[in-house]
Amino acid sequence: MKAVIQHEFGGSHILQLAEVETPTITEEEVLLKTAYTSVNYADIKSRRGNKGKGKFPLTLGLDATGTVVEAGTSSGFSEGDRVIAFPKGGSYAEYVKAHKQLTFRIPESLSFEQAAAMPTVSILSYILLHDIGQVKKSDTIVVHSGAGGVGSMLIQLAKLAGVETVMATVGNLSKEDYVKRMGADHVCTYDTFSEEVLQLTNGKGANAVFDSVAGEVTTASLDCLGLYGTLVQFGNSSGSAGHFKTSDVHSSCRNVKGFSLGTTRKHRPDMLAPAAERVIELFAAGKVTLPIAKVFDLSDAKQAHDLIESRAYEGKVLIKA
Question: What is the CATH number of the domain that holds 221?
Fold first, then answer.
């Protein structure tokens, strides 16, 4: 089968299409014929080597959608099932394998293309909003990187849950219209959001801030986080660590919560099923959606990565296997 592989860490030029062996499965796994895989910023970090050591040749990709072509005897799936999955060993490939706990059926009414946009960002967003952030309808929340995949989903899910005020940040206000179409009530840049949140809330601050950027954005987030508020930290796309002092949280009764979908897939995969079932229902019913920015062929993975790194897109970038 064809797959995109890399033999070293580096720029997008190291990605190459190659012939590799089709995966073999255990009794608890399924083999999928990949329809689409999404490209996530985590793929960029893995390609560069920012996420630690890699075993080469390395195939990137967190999620996939497709059809089961072989099902392990105790997997609970059957040949022909339409699914989304978090594959083992990467997803930039014509065939991928996944454990039964990381594979979820999708209805016929949900297209493979739209389904491919959802696994990582929508399941992550649902857990962040409802399990980690535990937002309430009366809350004012801040969603950083509002034009990204997770940001787009957090905004939609928050408004669907009835959250009163959603403020989103963007790197460039050219993305304001898109983010407001997703449902954001207010849009601002990273330079001004802290002051604008305080002004909007009459100095009380936000109830929750969802931060995938870190660095100086984390500091500014704490500056506008209200009493008893929650900072949900789930990434560091800035490449810099965020810093805070214990005195920033204890006297104000605020808290900082961290979450990683990767860690949860590895150590607590059972946590994903309730969120996956719910977001699949929402997508199938058309209550939430993710615009597709562009679809690339497997042979054009380099261009897909270049687009992600440029940040000059809105919605999700997909690769067609």
Answer: 3.40.50.720
